[in-house]
Amino acid sequence: MASKTDWKNAAAPTLADFEIIAAAAWERIQPEFREVCGDLVIRVEDFGLDEVLDELGIESPFDLMGLYQGVSLDKKSVLDVPREPDMVFLYRRAILDYWTESGEETLGEIITHVLVHEIGHHFGFSDADMEDIESEVTH
């Protein structure tokens, strides 16, 4: 018989909880991959900004689980003017919504998937490349 969860005292994972899970996923990524990321910043927010959603043509903030913001390495030049650091955003509420609907993946697996996918955009990788990297991180 399965034990019952005391839902009365349960709480959704916080932004800080997500940061811990994302940091653990980051550490599982191959060191040579992390080194090339350089000063990439990983941020956890509840939702994407309205301006970002509008720019991407996304109506519901629950439809955006992550975002890479910056210039991918395949498009950078040594002649580029210094700018803000490249960032990966993980959107807590959208990820939690997906997690509760999917029921098949752990929260850590979903956060890892979104993180690897968005970092892949930093490198200009294809979806197939990102799947290969993710399979090495999760196994």
Features:
Zincin-like, 49% helix, 10% strand
- What is the N-to-C succession of helices and strands? HHEHEEHHH
Number of helices in the DSSP assignment: 6
Helical fraction: 40-55%
Mean pLDDT: 83
Fold-level CATH name of the domain at 36-71 and 84-139: Zincin-like
Shape: globular
The assigned CATH architecture of the domain at 36-71 and 84-139 is: 2-Layer Sandwich
CA-to-CA gap between the ends? 30 Å
Question: Largest beta sheet: what is the strand line-up?
Answer: 1-3-2
Structural class based on helices, strands and sheet pairing:
mainly alpha
What is the strand tally?
A: 3
What does the main sheet amount to? 3 strands, mixed
Structure description:
The protein has 139 residues and is mainly alpha-helical. It has a domain of 92 residues: Zincin-like (2-Layer Sandwich). The protein is 49% helix and 10% strand. It is built from six helices and three strands. Helix 1 packs across helix 5 and helix 5 crosses helix 6. The longest helix is centred in the C-terminal third of the chain and has 17 residues.
